[in-house]
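Handover notes (outgoing to incoming on-call)

Open items:
1. ABC transporter ATP-binding protein: sequence verified, structure written out, both below. Nothing else pending on this one.
2. Nothing else urgent.
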Amino acid sequence: MTLLLEATVADRGVDVALEVAAGETVALLGPNGAGKSTVLAVAAGLLRPDTGTVRLDDHELTGGRVVPPHARRTALLAQDPLLFPHLTALDNVAFGPRSAGVRRRAARDSARRWLAEVGAADLAGRRPGELSGGQAQRVAVARALAAEPRLLLLDEPMAALDVAVTPALRQTLRRVLEGRTTVVVTHDVLDALLLADRVVVLDRGRVVEQGPAADVLARPRSPFAARIAGLNLVAGRWSDGAVRSDDGRVVAGTPSGPVLREGDPAVAVFRPRAVSVFRDPPGGSPRTALAVVVTDLEPHGDQVRVRAGDLAADVTAHAAAELDLAPGTPVTFSVKATEVDVYAR
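ABC transporter ATP-binding protein structure tokens:
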């Protein structure tokens, strides 16, 4: 493994074990406060863990002598570019090689190469104040790569950008991260799918789920992964043809994958569009009926997404008006068992 991180940061409630293979990009997902940025800070050497180990390319970084950030050959790219305002884009990118002892001309040649790599060659002579947000972040990516880091750490690098420029930068990152050892913190499902080989989900400072990006988002086992994948998830135990949660929810469904036995931990997953919304509990065909209270209404394409805590339903605008839905309205979410996938947790 290129990166092995096992760290406890007590005052932040973080206790994480993370491995990243050489050339692999891992996306760290999780709700706010889950510990994602803390993990990056420990890896970068900006935060010393109370206990644990950080190893990079078989080098111990947190033993008796803690290796300082500048000597780790890691590069951390944050939401804000944090470029030196008094330097041109070219000299910002050349800063890393120059700090490593590379001569000025060679450092500038390297900087021009990296600016061209991220599609910013024409920005070489501009200072940060003359750059747009997307342009500045491209320069910041080039600066990080010019330092030739063994490990690249990205902390929501597109969070502060206008939505119009995000797709282009995402494609740039997808190209330049190929074959590089990278950890990227993101809340965006597209970042996870397009940039990452593997996803690790953190919650309350612990790893709760991990695996190939497509698998985690297609078959989530944690509420956060389900939410960013646009799915509903109820976790509990398999019993009498349904998943029964600790808070009393009962969701009937169709098991897939390994056979589930009575009492096995399981999750029931279903799409918001499969959920019908009623003011009164429905009768008729066998359905799961969940009594919920509307917490939010938001546009979702040509429909309205009705949120009730961690569950959601998609209805037409006409249906939302006819049901007189508003935050605080008690309703019943109903879904057919045939629309619910059940698998081991």
